[in-house]
Amino acid sequence: MSIQQLFLYNASAILLIGVFGILTRRNIIKILLSINILQTGANLLLVALGWRPSGIAPIITENTGHAPLFVDPLPQAMVLTAIVIAFGTTALGLVIAIKYYMSHRSLETSSFMYGKTKSDDEEVVQ
Amino acid sequence: MTAGRKMKRSHRVLINILVFIVLCVAGFLVYRSFTDTGEGKKLLSAAVEDRVSVKFSEKSVREDTGSQVSFGTEGYESGSANIVTSIVVNYRAFDTLLEVIILFASTAGIAMLMEKRKRRIYTESSQIVKTAVPVINLFIYVVGIVIILRGHLSPGGGFAGGAVLASAFILTSLAFRNTGRGILYMVLETLMGLGILAVGLLGIYYGGGFLQNFLPTGRVGDFFSGGTVVILYTLIGVKVLSEISGISGSFLGNLKEKR
Amino acid sequence: MNYIILFLILPLFSAFLAPVCSIVRGRFGKYLNIVVYAAGAAGGIYFFTVSGFNAYSVIIGGWKPPYGINLYLGPAAFGFGILIYFIAFLIHIYDLQNNRPAYYHMLFALFVFASLGMTMTGDLFNLFIFIEIGTIALLGLSASVSPGSGTRGALKYFVPAALVSMIMLAGIALLYSSLGTLNIAHIARSSELNGSLAFLLGIGMLGIFFFEAELFPFNTWVPDLYKGAPSSIAAGVAGIGGIAGVVSFGRVFLTMMAGSDTFRFARSRLTAVVFIIAAASIVIGELAALKEEDFKKVLAFSSVSHMGIVVLTFSIGGSVALTAGLFILLNHSVVKPLMLMTAGFYIKTSGKARWREMRGIARRYPLTGALFVVGALSLMGMPLFAGFWGKMILLKSLFSGQGSLSAAGQQTFPLIGAAVILFSVILEGTYFMRIGHVFFEAPPSEDIPGRSRRLKISLSTAAPALILALVVVFFGLRPGLIEGYLSRAAADLINTADYINNVLVTLSAAGGAL
Question: Is residue C480 predicted with pLDDT exceeding 70?
């Protein structure tokens, strides 16, 4: 199989692992890690789809000569943005997990008591 | 202390079965889309030559250059040698503005949620760390600034350079237990953000479109090529630096020990 | 006319200036936001009337689409954009009574910016980024006040949001590799996609809109977020988030998928999926609201069901049904913030979260009780209120059986839809009247809620709710004023050929907006 197909299979495997982790894990930190794996898989899929046989990196230098054959630069620009988005959401997710732990004293998604006695259902939020 | 509500066993089994069914259906759909032999375009059927990005590679969005872009030539519509940079900062600059806003929003959210953190106990760094960190920081600064400034000539740019520079700040705050005032980072971020908006509005004033390039585009390969690319990437670099430093400062609890 | 982009960019100024303003002078940041929203609404009205109801395609960066990014300011985006500014303005005035930190105002301004962008953008990847900005801003805002249910609501929003948004990104990647472009108009003009590929990509990209629009399989976040977030944030999600989700869903589903040839081979299957999910949301939303004890969660489930009604009209197709759907959306976006403001006030004065424990509270605060009843009647669809006209036009178009998008089942789908909507009206009437009854009941004299905490209702709390109720009654009495405009907005979403022509126009060499 060509190198592009190898990368595509790899990216789909990573995507599947991420989805599996999100759906079956109960610890919040593990869910956040799976989200991160899923985002990495999506980024890899994007870059792999931009490949071109005998293409070079899309930078014009003295050695590129006339009419060079570049790989697709647009997925690379999209991946730049997607990596930053993944960073932002992961950081915020971790902070929310910290606050969740500070009040619920547990990182399991099934815990529903916060503080010592109050239940989430009875909390009054104005 | 904590009370977990354990799901009933039958509920858990039911949800597992449902998830399995959904994944099977999804897998079946993916398989079908690979092997369907009906009419219409298949997956991966747009070769790179048929995509929109071929005009970006040849710098021929406005007028045709006939795929003759080469080093050292003047007068292209976007002069930067790194084509990915020209997409990120010139052709699709709006996406970059939004990406910067994402970082801004997440920094603000983290700062707001981490305000009342308890003081944590750290062990004091050893003498080796305290002596080595300033020297290492010097190298990091040089590399980071070069990456930011040469974003249009080689891989790199504002995001990568800003992250590298932020690692210097994080090193310092970890070694000396002093994160700097969080407000300072916020003010820096805000000023850079307003600067980017100002460049965008100047684009309307001089050129006609928001974030349009209004400076001359020079020769491909020069430092002063690409117009507003260098300005925007510098602003973005400093913004990313202050954002990441602000986030790490919030996580570390806004320490303010003197050296 | 190039400065028309300020209609979108205006909240950014307030977002960037709010932290600095708070350093300089106390809580100045919150007043800045109010000025910005009012300016945005006024500016929008001005631009809209000047442009004469035509669609505007704003080029960004001077590069013509599909190579550059464009914003599409048609009647749908303009009108609902002005509505978003208006609702944000009123929510902010309501929020003045609480002392929120400066970052809160900044994040709210960014949420408004993201919602505006979602309704206007013409590029798929740009839409993805706007959705992500909205997600991050909402996460920060909803976890800001309550440590227990607030963080739970935020996490329940975050995990599915990350999952579906990455599925959307994978879908965009595969779509780009098959068609070679990211621009919505250019995609709508491309040649046809293979049937199963089109179905896969359609499902992938619609998933996140089902999530944003609070529809059935993805609605687990709605009750917990409404309960855990402060009432003004819940009002923002219901009003502003709902508008953004539905209008962008309309753009992607109606203009790009249903109206064009690109997704032709999967069109009936995708429409059927949307119909099933919408009908399921209506039924399940109403049933869940019937047995719910917490006040804000009842309103959340009612939101789920109403969004289901609106999306149902999208799948039925035809401009009459779509006009009705947009009317229902307008009604919901005005009424739900009104009811959430009332709920916030009642929760603050009585200190209780369940509606059964708030007996007789409307006798103590009759004005807010009356406003709550106005909102409930409009949601149910009583005559004299705005909700009536939407539901009536919808039922009329369903029973006359015209304009169904699906080829097969020409008669059965609209009849099922009508049955489901009538079912929802009955259930909604039941639980809202039950709540109203409990509120207005004379309580035993020992336990009047709020006796120890008698709060005088301040002008800034009551005025926004009052204004929203007046808007609802006004449009209930004079629907003709808004109906013509809404049918134009519906035509904007359905008419793919016009959209393509407006966007992909050749420009002079200088670039710039049309």
Answer: yes
Chain A contacts in chain B segment 226-255 (CB below 8 A): 247, 250-251
Q: Is residue A63 part of a domain?
A: no
Q: What is residue C449's predicted lDDT score, i.e. its pLDDT?
A: 55
Q: Given this model, what pLDDT does residue C140 score?
A: 92
Among A77-86, C77-86, C354-363, C504-513, name the one with the lowest average pLDDT: C504-513
What residues make up the domain containing A98? 3-54+71-122
**In sequence order, what DSSP letters do the residues of A2-70 get, joined into one string?**
-HHHHHHHHHHHHHHHHHHHHHH--BHHHHHHHHHHHHHHHHHHHHHTT--TT-B-SB--TTS-SS--B
Mean pLDDT of chain A: 87
Delimit the domains of chain B by residue range: 81-114+124-252
Is there a contact between A28 and C155 if contact means CB atoms under 8 Å apart? Answer: yes
Which residues neighbour A37 within 8 Å (Cβ) at sequence distance 6 or greater?
Answer: A14, A17, A18, A21
Kindly determine whether residue B2 and residue A23, on different chains, have CB atoms separated by under 8 Å.
no
Return the residue of A nearest to C227 by Cα: A125
Task: Give C79's contacts (C-beta < 8 A, 6+ positions apart).
Answer: C48, C485, C486, C489
- Mean pLDDT for the stretch of residues C477-488: 83
C5·B210 Cβ contact <8 A: yes
What is the pLDDT at residue B67? Answer: 65
Give the count of domains, chain A: 1
Could you tell me the maximum CA-CA distance found in chain C, to the nearest angstrom?
78
Weakly modelled stretches of chain B, pLDDT under 70? 1-8, 65-68, 116-121, 254-259
Residue A25 falls within a domain, yes or no? Answer: yes
Neighbours of chain C (3+ CB pairs under 8 A): A, B
Domain containing residue A48: CATH number: 1.10.287.3510
Asked if residues C115 and C84 have their Cβ atoms less than 8 Å apart, the reply is yes
- Residues B153 and B83: their CA atoms lie apart, in Å, by 9
Render pLDDT for C126-140 as a digit per residue (tens, 0 to 9).
999 999 999 999 999
The pTM of this model reads 0.93
Asked if residue A40 is part of any domain, the answer here is yes
Residues 6 or more apart whose Cβ sits within 8 Å of residue C198: B40, C192, C262, C263, C264, C265, C266, C270
Residue A64: inside a domain: no
- Which segments of chain A have a pLDDT < 50? none
Residue B45 forms contact with C (CB below 8 Å):
yes
The CA distance from B81 to B96, in Å, is: 19
Do residue B41 and residue C193 have CB atoms under 8 angstroms apart? yes
Q: Are B185 and B231 in contact (CB under 8 A)?
A: no
In angstroms, what CA-CA distances link C19 with B184, B238, C39, C101, C286? 11, 18, 20, 9, 42
User: Closest approach of chain B CAs to the CA of C62, in angstroms?
Assistant: 5
Higher pLDDT, B220 or C25: B220
